[in-house]
């Protein structure tokens, strides 16, 4: 008989998340007898204002993961943030504390850092971060911890952000790590890719895509054709999920 203490519900907050990695990962994890009684489900809401109602209608929830587009939008609905989540400015894990409070954490930075580190060589000195959303903030924090300077790239140039039209051969000489933090190239739009001059990738570059479906995006394929080391977001997701599990259980 399953211990009543192990009957706990978890889930993923997001929009259009039927493809979700998290539900499949945790459902498979909970199939193990050790975790019997736990369940994991998707909470797909069309806008963040429905979050309050979701919490009210599911008082037995113990933890949530958060994905696009709510990693930043959910913050005002939380009671407190971990120190690192506050510094990052984005949340991908929520813990329901014993006194009924909601505390936000960021495990994206941890997963990214742990998956990138084995690829780094001395010549990998600077990074370009494609995109400026919640996921990119965790990536930037991880790069700060690794002492790797970075520049953001977006469709509109702003302070400390360059636009795609400015990227050229010199850019690729100066930045050896290119990280796609945008949803461009996600299934089913697998032919799409960030607007880059891919001919300037070399074997000295790392192309990292946070997307994991498909496993090899057009961004990664084009970089690999030029000899770049490539990595998708699958391992990052495993690391961040296990970190979230530890947070929920501490």
UniProtKB/TrEMBL annotation:
Residues annotated as signal peptide: none
Protein EC: 1.1.1.25
CDD domains, A to Z: NAD_bind_Shikimate_DH
Keyword vocabulary terms for this entry: Amino-acid biosynthesis, Aromatic amino acid biosynthesis, Oxidoreductase
Pathway stated in the Swiss-Prot or TrEMBL entry: Metabolic intermediate biosynthesis; chorismate biosynthesis; chorismate from D-erythrose 4-phosphate and phosphoenolpyruvate: step 4/7
Gene3D superfamilies: Leucine Dehydrogenase, chain A, domain 1, NAD(P)-binding Rossmann-like Domain
GO molecular function annotations of the record: NADP binding; shikimate 3-dehydrogenase (NADP+) activity
Protein's UniProt keywords contain Amino-acid biosynthesis: yes
SUPFAM superfamilies linked: Aminoacid dehydrogenase-like, N-terminal domain, NAD(P)-binding Rossmann-fold domains
The keyword Transit peptide is annotated on this UniProt entry: no
One annotated Gene Ontology cellular component of this protein: cytosol
Residue ranges constituting the Shikimate dehydrogenase substrate binding N-terminal domain according to the UniProt record: 12-94
Descriptive protein name: Shikimate dehydrogenase
Organism in which the protein naturally occurs: Flavobacterium nitrogenifigens
